[in-house]
């Protein structure tokens, strides 16, 4: 099974949204700096908003990073396997890659579960951020759920691609 084109499209949209969030957060930081430095009139809300939405950038950018091999990997293990097998046998490297992605899959499953619990509590108790500019925590917490689901889907297709014989993610 080849890595599906629709996941490439979904992750590209996710990464683009991540970029806009980072751009918006940077614009808020510049605005805050100008207001504070030149007008001696800082806002009471920009840092809180930036903090609350920046989690979306991290969780929306991660699926794309998995897809494009942008996450950190342990090249030392890969190089040792290649040296030992003299590059002829791809099975050990494929196996190590699958184990690594399965480990990531299990870790992100824990994020998903934790994010779900946080969202459920935020909805049940209508939890608001304790800042002068109050906003519902569900806005931030839902990023964990959405991003984790996208990462799990991406990892599942990467693992299936490796099992089917693909070489891109080794």
Structure characterization notes:
With about 170 residues, the protein is mainly α. The protein has one domain (about 5-165). About 75% of the residues lie in helices and about 0% in strands. The chain contains five helices and no strands. The relative contact order is 0.17. The mean pLDDT is about 90.
Blueprint of the fold:
Layout: H1 5-39, H2 46-67, H3 75-85, H4 91-125, H5 137-163
Helix pairs in contact: 1-2, 2-5, 4-5
Structural descriptors:
170 residues, mainly alpha, 0% strand
A few lines on this structure:
The protein is 76% helix and 0% strand. The chain contains five helices and no strands.
Number of domains as seen in the coordinates: 1
The percentage helix is: over 70%
Structural class: mainly alpha
Radius of gyration: 20 Å
Spans of 5+ residues with little confidence (pLDDT < 50)? none
Query: How many alpha or pi helices?
Result: 5
Helix/strand order, N-terminal first:
HHHHH
**In this structure, how is the largest beta sheet organized?**
none
How widely separated are the two ends? 15 Å
The overall average pLDDT, rounded, is 90
Q: Shape from CA axes? A: elongated
Total strands? 0
User: What share of the residues does DSSP label as strand, in percent?
Assistant: under 5%
């Amino acid at each position: 099974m080849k890595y599906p084109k629709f996941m490439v499209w979904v992750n590209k949209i996710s990464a683009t949204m991540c970029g806009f969030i980072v751009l918006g957060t940077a614009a808020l930081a510049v605005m805050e700096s100008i207001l504070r430095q030149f007008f001696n009139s800082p806002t009471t809300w920009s840092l809180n908003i930036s903090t609350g939405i920046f989690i979306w950038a991290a969780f929306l950018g991660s699926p794309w990073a998995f897809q494009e091999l942008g996450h950190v990997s342990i090249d030392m293990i890969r190089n040792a396997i290649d040296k030992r097998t003299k590059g002829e046998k791809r099975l050990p490297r494929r196996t190590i890659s699958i184990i690594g992605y399965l480990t990531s899959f299990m870790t992100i499953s824990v994020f998903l579960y934790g994010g779900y619990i946080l969202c459920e509590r935020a909805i049940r108790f209508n939890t608001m951020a304790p800042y002068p500019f109050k906003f519902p925590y569900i806005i931030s917490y839902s990023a964990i759920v959405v991003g984790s689901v996208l990462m799990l889907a991406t990892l599942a297709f990467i693992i299936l691609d490796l099992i089917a014989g693909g070489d891109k993610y080794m």
